[in-house]
Design goal:
Number of strands: 8
Order of helices and strands: HEEHHHHEEHHHHHHHHHHHHEEEEHH
Distance between the termini: 66 Å
Strand content: 5-15%
Strand order of the largest sheet: 6-5-8-7
Shape: globular
Length: 467
């Protein structure tokens, strides 16, 4: 236990010391998170705190190389463990840092994450079978895609949940503690050590990241945390591949997994690009109820603690009894989905197929004709929809035109071109949008932008209101 506590304290002290330095150089080098249409903060805040988290987590492992005990012998007995944890962790944190600085396309980030997941699989970070009360379930050829889905999914889950001061780092702490206890229970001590180091690193970072945040972790931190927790949970559960050992990390990561799943389903049902960012994550929905950031974060901390307690309690039950815990967990998830208004979206109709080529020709023709209408008639056209207001905004979030009533959460962004969006403030929860509806909404958005570009109204009167 002394080794684990030492790892926690070393990581904590290192991150607490180095983060002010990162704040200074983040501002100096312009590596900041600026305000745009998705963010909820104001001002220029450095977003390279993940560098400190990654280095702080890895530092105790490097020092462990020079201190021989049972943990170091197991961790360094093969090259696989340091290659995945240290090498893979540094690589994905480096990718995140590059994305924070240069905006790497989502496709290349996704492919890089898949490559790291494949590497981790072939180096032994996998679960190829699970023991259930009815015997072993062998995954066989499905073991590789399941491993890829788990690692890439958790990486992106922590990336998506990182949208509010202290949220991702706080949840990472609770998950780290859960995996720490699971690893000790399964006698995988080096996993417990790394979990303790990560817990210390995120607590040290929280000193500067809790609201009001002085620094953000950025993708360099969120993707590192997601990757480390994903591979640790695989290794921590693999030695005793019982159903409980597999369920424990899933339950502990309930908030990020739920939020990511809902985000993908929501965008699919609304015919939006899967990787298109929006402001309808769980924390945004709670914020829309008039709560401040601290209340939202503390509420999600409370839910995470509840999930952690369920996971830890399930750890000491038999597999048959664990199904009761899983049932309770499922009920809580359903309640969250219902209370946040997602049920209306999930029960909405699915999209239909698109006839791409002809639709583009028709869209171009009709947008030119609609753009010739007077502005008042265009407003009337939009207000015939079930909306209470709309706005034309830039990709940076600056309003160019607004009319009617705004809503901080029940809105849908329709991309008009590479620089502008039409934001529709819905009457109630934003519904699923099928393919034909998406095309017609895009047509209205492009027509409105075409009107401004032709008349020059955008530059003459940046914000209008008149409905």
């Amino acid at each position: 236990m002394k080794t684990f506590l030492t790892a926690f304290l070393i990581a904590f002290a290192f991150v607490a010391f180095v983060t002010p330095i990162l704040i200074h150089y983040g501002l100096k080098w312009g590596l900041v998170d600026v305000t745009n249409r998705r963010t909820i903060h104001r001002g220029r805040i450095p977003r390279i705190g993940g560098v400190g988290i990654a280095l702080g987590t890895i530092l105790p492992l490097v020092l462990l190389y020079f201190y021989h005990n049972n943990v170091s012998e197991v961790f360094f007995e093969t090259s696989a463990n340091p290659l995945v944890v240290i090498g893979g962790g540094l690589l994905i944190s480096g990718l995140g840092l590059l994305d924070d600085a240069k905006n790497v396309p989502a496709k290349w980030k996704f492919l890089f994450q898949i490559a790291l997941a494949v590497g981790a699989y072939y180096l032994g970070f996998m679960i190829d079978r699970v023991y259930t009360p009815w015997g072993f379930v062998e995954f066989g050829y499905f073991s590789l895609p399941i491993t890829i889905l788990w690692i890439v999914g958790i990486v992106n889950a922590f990336n998506l949940i990182d949208g509010m001061d202290g949220l991702s780092s706080g949840i990472a702490f609770f998950v780290s503690i859960t995996i720490f206890v699971l690893a000790l229970h399964n006698m995988v001590e080096f996993v417990a050590l790394i979990s303790a180091a990560l817990a210390g690193a995120v607590v040290g970072f929280l000193l500067y990241n809790f609201n009001p945040a002085k620094i953000f972790m950025g993708d360099s931190g969120s993707m590192f945390i997601g990757f480390i927790l994903a591979v640790l949970s695989l290794k921590g559960a693999s030695k005793h591949s019982t159903l409980v050992s597999v369920l424990v990390p899933i339950i502990a990561m309930g908030i990020p997994i739920l939020d990511t799943t809902l985000a993908f389903v929501r965008r699919f049902l609304r015919n939006q690009p899967i990787f298109m960012a929006d402001r309808q994550h769980i924390h945004h929905l709670l914020l829309s109820k008039g709560w401040n950031q601290r209340r939202v974060v503390m509420t999600l901390y409370g839910i995470s603690i509840f999930f952690t307690a369920i996971a830890l309690f399930a750890m000491f039950l038999k597999d048959r009894e664990a199904f009761l815990i899983l049932a309770a967990f499922s009920v809580v998830i359903v309640v969250i989905i219902t209370k946040l208004g997602y049920l209306d979206i999930l029960l909405s109709r699915y999209r239909t197929n698109r006839e791409q080529q002809l639709e583009r020709r028709l869209e171009e023709t009709l947008s030119r004709q609609i753009a010739r209408l007077p502005l008042r008639e265009m407003e009337t056209l939009i207000f015939d929809l079930p909306v209470k207001g709309f706005a034309v905004i830039t990709v940076g979030g600056a309003p160019l035109f607004s009319s009617g009533e705004a809503d901080p959460i029940n809105f849908l962004d329709i991309q008009a071109d590479g620089e502008h969006f039409l934001r529709l403030y819905w009457n109630g929860v934003v519904p699923a949008i099928n393919a034909r509806e998406a095309i017609m909404l895009a047509l209205i958005a492009k027509s409105l932008i075409r009107y401004f570009s032709v008349t020059g109204k955008e530059s003459e009167n940046p914000i209008l209101s008149g409905h």
